[in-house]
Amino acid sequence: MKKLSDRKEKNRRLTDFSAKHLALELLHETRNKSELAKGNRKSSGAVVQIETLRILQVLDGFKDRLDKHGKLKLLPEIVREFKKLLEAEVKENIVFVKSTVPLSKEQIGKLKEKVKKVFGKNLEIYVVVDPSLAGGLILKYKDQLVDLSVESKVEDLIKSISEK
Q1: pLDDT in tens, 53-88
Q2: Are 64 and 96 contained in the same domain?
Q3: Domain count, the chain
Q4: Residue 124 belongs to what domain range?
Q5: Of 26, 34, 129, 162, which has the fewest CB atoms closer than 10 Å, so is most exposed?
Q6: pTM of structure
Q7: CA pseudo-torsion sign 154, 156, 161, 162
């Protein structure tokens, strides 16, 4: 019985809401189906493939519901809104780190601790290797940039010497 009432509720919401609301519903549905989103963050190749299949199932069911209710034409707008929601979520929960070399698990663990002290919450660390960086790290969280690169330290040193 509960499944039927859940389905009826989803169908009612589908006919009543705008693309923005539907994108939010899609985000919640994908999150509910995702083991990674539930905190089971093992990211082996097999787990990622299973997650991809789950998300594809949600998307397929969502598309079918849109089509059934004559709302398929909203799909491009829903996708735009969905992308905005995901981007906002990523900005809220991830610190992007540029490094010359890949960081070890131990280094990432220490970095997570420092990031928690600075920003006041546990955040995911996403490392991008950039060989053009002379050394050090550059961290970006939301609109904040923390430049701990060798290049910025040298520039600061030159500025302080030239000011004297």
Answers
A1: 777 788 888 888 888 888 888 888 888 888 887 777
A2: no
A3: 2
A4: 92-163
A5: 162
A6: 0.51
A7: positive
